[in-house]
Write a structure and sequence with these properties.
CATH topology: Phosphatidylethanolamine-binding Protein
Number of strands: 8
Distance between the termini: 32 Å
Order of helices and strands: EEEEEHEEHE
Strand order of the largest sheet: 6-4-3-7-8
Helix content: under 10%
Number of helices: 2
Largest sheet: 5 strands, antiparallel
Strand content: 25-35%
Radius of gyration: 14 Å
CATH superfamily: PEBP-like
Shape: globular
Length: 152
């Protein structure tokens, strides 16, 4: 399984428009080659370089198996597109873009797509990114990663 973005390359810088310094839009992401038996997807984004430990920026789940992408800014229309959003560590539902402390150096933002063996995760509305990841990993068939960087 592969995960990619038309906005940045693996290991490359995330454009400002997808950060707290820009429009804070979720970036465009696409994937291919899920394993046989995949019934849905979950997508996570974390910053392992945050001063207080891993910071969870985004988790969306119950993404239909026939989807192969999330367009730029699609997080803002999750309900209409049929997937669910988790509460991030900014205490907001949905995407919270890269926003590292000033002069803290480059941070890595790890996007992780999980192919799941279930159609829906048994989570309450407003579950945290951590809860989504914990539940999704119980049903993961495969995962694909993409890393972007950002510094302020």
């Amino acid at each position: 399984m592969r995960l990619s973005s038309s906005a940045f390359s693996d290991g490359g810088p995330i454009p400002r428009r997808f950060t707290c310094d820009g429009e804070d839009l979720s970036p465009p992401l696409s994937w291919s080659d899920p394993p046989t038996g995949t019934r849905s997807f979950a997508l996570l984004c974390d910053d392992p370089d945050a001063p207080g430990g891993t910071f969870h920026h985004w988790a969306v789940y119950d993404i239909a198996v026939d989807r192969t992408e999330l367009a730029q800014g699609s997080d803002r229309h999750a309900d209409a597109q049929g997937f669910k959003r988790a509460a991030n560590d900014f205490n907001r539902l949905g995407y919270g873009g890269p926003c590292p402390p000033q002069r803290h150096g480059p941070h890595r933002y790890q996007f992780c797509l999980l192919a799941l063996s279930v159609d829906h995760l048994p989570l309450r509305k407003g579950s945290s990114c951590r809860e989504v990841e914990r539940e999704a990993r119980k049903h993961a068939l495969a995962e694909a990663g993409l890393v972007g960087t950002y510094e302020r």
